[in-house]
């Protein structure tokens, strides 16, 4: 009797994606697709209502709806400047978010995303208070994931008395990368890089790595 080799059946891609990552990523995709379909007027309206605008504390602008000044510290992270902007953030969210949710669970995954998105907006408020341009995009939360994973590595190294030079090299590389990206705007890159949000999200992600246990 001849043995017939059994092929391993590949699982669908989404079977490997944890539910929290799938839910957040799908929400970002659906929102962007809707704005693509509805057109520029709807996107402009969504930005006006939900993008993050630095608040001038001495003369705060009037809210368009109750709670807008608080909600926008997170709601901005659900909007993107265009389809390409969304694809980049969602791709990184899937890659990093899967690692995080597998390690700390769905509740902590969502907590990290929401809290680092908020601290990204806080950083934008502090560092770009005079900037009238709104901030949108999930990159504050995405950099929060990056900070969380690298923070785990940092605390492991500190606990085991290992060199933290790899972490410092990473931070230096991120700084250089952002300087280059900022210099390339608007000659090559057509949109501003929200480095303030990236910084706030990354730093708070590192801090959360010392608090949230696996």
Round the mean pLDDT to the nearest integer and report it: 86
Number of helices: 8
Query: In CATH, what is the homologous superfamily?
Result: Rhomboid-like
Query: What is the CATH top level name?
Result: Mainly Alpha
Main sheet specs: none
Helix content: 55-70%
Q: Tell me, what's the shape?
A: globular
For the secondary structure, the number of strands is 0
CA-based gyration radius? 20 Å
Word description of this protein:
- The chain is mainly alpha-helical.
- It has one domain: Rhomboid-like (Rhomboid-like fold), CATH 1.20.1540.10.
- The protein is built from eight helices and no strands.
- The chain has helices at about 20-40, 40-50, 70-75, 85-105, 105-125, 140-160, 165-185, 195-210.
- Helix 5 packs across helix 6 (about 140-160) and helix 5 crosses helix 8.
- The radius of gyration is 20 Å and the shape is globular.
- The mean pLDDT is about 85.
Task: Describe the structure using short key phrases.
Rhomboid-like fold; 214 residues; mainly alpha; globular
Question: Could you write a compact summary of the structure shown?
Answer:
This protein has helices at residues 19-38, 40-50, 68-75, 83-104, 106-127, 139-159, 165-184, 195-209. It is mainly α.
Layout of helices and strands, plus pairs?
Elements: H1 19-38, H2 40-50, H3 68-75, H4 83-104, H5 106-127, H6 139-159, H7 165-184, H8 195-209
């Amino acid at each position: 009797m001849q043995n017939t080799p059994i092929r391993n059946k590949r699982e669908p891609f989404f079977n490997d994606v944890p539910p929290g990552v799938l839910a957040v990523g799908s929400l970002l995709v659906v929102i962007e697709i809707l704005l693509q379909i509805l057109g520029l007027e709807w996107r402009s309206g969504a930005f006006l209502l939900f993008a993050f605008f630095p608040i001038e504390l001495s003369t705060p602008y009037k809210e368009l709806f109750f709670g807008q000044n608080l909600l926008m510290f997170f709601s901005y992270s659900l909007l993107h400047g265009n389809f390409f902007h969304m694809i980049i953030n969602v791709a990184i969210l899937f890659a990093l978010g899967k690692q995080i949710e597998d390690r700390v669970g769905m509740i902590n995954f969502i907590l990290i995303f929401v809290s680092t998105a908020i601290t990204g907006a806080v950083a934008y408020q502090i560092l770009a208070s005079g900037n009238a341009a709104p901030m949108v995009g999930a990159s504050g939360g995405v950099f929060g994931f990056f900070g969380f994973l690298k923070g785990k590595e940092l605390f492991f190294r500190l606990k085991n008395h290992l060199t933290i030079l790899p972490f410092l090299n990473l931070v230096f590389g991120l700084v250089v990368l952002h300087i280059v990206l900022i210099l390339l705007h608007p000659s090559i890159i057509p949109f501003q890089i929200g480095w303030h949000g990236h910084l706030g999200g990354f730093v708070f992600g590192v801090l959360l790595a010392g608090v949230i246990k696996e």
